[in-house]
Amino acid sequence: MILRNFLAVLAACLSLSMPVGAQTDDTRAATGGAQTLEDILARQRGEVVDDSAMRAATGDPDSAAGIAEQLGTLGGASDPDLWRALRYGSADITVSSRSPAAGVIIQDGGMEWLQFREGPLAHYGGYALLGMIAVLVLFYLIRGKIRIDGGPSGQTILRFNAVERFGHWLMAGSFIVLAVTGLVMIFGRLALIPLLGKEVYAPIANVGKWSHNNLAWAFMAGLVIVIVVWVADNFPNKHDLKWLAKGGGLFSKGVHPPAKKFNAGQKIIFWSVVVLGVSISASGLSLLFPFELPMFAKTFVILNATGLPQLFGFGELPTVLGPHQEMQLAQAWHGIVAFVFMAIIIAHIYLGSVGMEGAFDAVGTGEVDVQWAKEHHALWYEETRGAASPDVPAEPAE
Amino acid sequence: MKVMFAAFLSAIVIAVAADLALHRAGFSSEEVTAGPSVRLD
Fold first, then answer.
1. Could you give the percent of chain A with pLDDT greater than 90?
2. A251: Cβ–Cβ under 8 A, 6 or more apart, which residues?
3. B15, A173: Cβ pair inside 8 Å?
């Protein structure tokens, strides 16, 4: 620690005492294009270092010495020239492995990816999940379980048919396993191995990886079913704003803003599941078939065209990415989306189970209490009742 | 609740079927990444 502090102070002093541009040009010329002290210090400060001189310094076969002369067998490229060509991916590589990325001998994105994965991703992701749980516990302590205000009527009405419930549970069941196994993977080295030991963790990770890879297909199938059966009922309508304005009646007893089959809150959950589900499936497929489905270079081209990255100060995103960079970005994005997804679904699980009386029945048996339907989905209840009994005129919605 | 358990069972069936199908279709790590000059067993 003392050494690190000392070096930091030294670096700061040096960086203050050196006129950066002039020094870099002079020292670069002095080193024949090799990296300079200023380059090293700039890298330590986390700045982008111009490495074009090193990228280009990979030897000159045209000026190679004759094969019988001294160093002639090197073909005009010194050993450092060769290593630079490998380092920057410009060497002519022939490999016997069939792996699509086998020709990449050196890549340095791994360290950055690992630091992101074990640093901000794991920490902020963990805080997001714990934060959501804390908010829900607080909500439960203040509001308690949301009861059926009029009391259960004892009569039921079909809310979700078998196909709807099947799609929901196919996706939900696989999602829970995917979430747990994903957490086991990301927190393995950080928390579980220190806690359980490698011998206990290894089989858990092995089963987790198999489950994660293969249940992904069930999740995607469930996602397709859910989108098909529910998308028509999830388009926004005029009642959603009123519902949102009253907080859905979640924060006060006896307040029940009318809603159709899905209220605004459920629509937010639905569209979150669609967007996050499709995105996590895309990055997941990229990870399932390593190096075969690179998506980020193409995505960055589209994003650059929208001008959004430039608007938010990220500048032009790189549109040429190596195979490992694609995988690292796919994993990082998969993790980010997963944590957001899990945080939202924890809230959904809470409201669909312990948080609200009668809610679970909708996806449990499919039959909900009539009083629950009147209170939480009054417009849908009237429509359904009207359709079931055409002779009985439906009551006005509001 | 029958539908819920049927969906869970289906998820397991899909997972096993996906694993078998992908292996048979040549998508195992060995098949994808190893060459004839690599001995794995």
1. 58
2. A143
3. no
